[in-house]
């Protein structure tokens, strides 16, 4: 995951809707929000074209991802599930639809890859479609979320603590298809015959978090994680080499 810094003000689509709907005082919920395509585009732009959970591209590049049984599409995801938002509103004495609910709070909304399988099979989906109404221990709205996960050259994902490991399980982030996509993305930056210096690795890590034409590379935070592991290994080797040279002087 990559931390998503939400804007203070809602995106334009929600602001326009609130101007029209607040005076009416009803249908103030996501189900009745009437400009989801515009909101989806705004969220995708905010995330530089990447799925909030997986790092998969969810702009027009998504058209390249498909197979015989799965449908891949961009989706407006409620980080706190809609059912939980509604239940909390009612518990506070609010009336769903009359009182504005957190299901329309832009700070709870992200763009995510939605995977649907025909015929349905939950074990064969991943990301937004996998966790349902389960609350995620680690979300892209939390600062430092990127540091909770590690990736290797094979596209495998590892959680650094039990919260991250539970999140991996809930989102099914070890799905073979997703792991294969990550492996391909990492290999594109680190072919077998490429050896980067420490300085080059540092430059690459920085560049992978800098959008080009308002886009980040596919799976950029996964590639960054692998690059950081190589940098840490290079630093350790340099430290050991320096230690050997120092010992040799005595």
Order of strands, main sheet, comes to: 1-2
Strand content: 5-15%
What is the total tally of β strands?
Answer: 4
Radius of gyration: 21 Å
SSE map:
Blueprint: H1 12-21, H2 36-46, E1 70-78, H3 82-91, E2 109-117, H4 128-131, E3 149-151, E4 157-159, H5 162-171, H6 176-189, H7 198-207, H8 220-248
Antiparallel strand pairs: 1-2, 3-4
Brief rundown of the structure:
By secondary structure, this protein is mainly α. It is 39% helix and 10% strand.
Question: What key phrases describe this protein's structure?
Answer:
about 250 residues; mainly alpha; two-stranded antiparallel ribbon; 8 helices; about 10% strand
Describe the structure.
The protein has 250 residues and is mainly α. It has one domain. 39% of the residues lie in helices and 10% in strands. The chain has eight helices and four strands; from the N terminus they run H-H-E-H-E-H-E-E-H-H-H-H. Helix 6 packs across helix 8 and helix 7 packs antiparallel against helix 8. The longest helix has 29 residues.
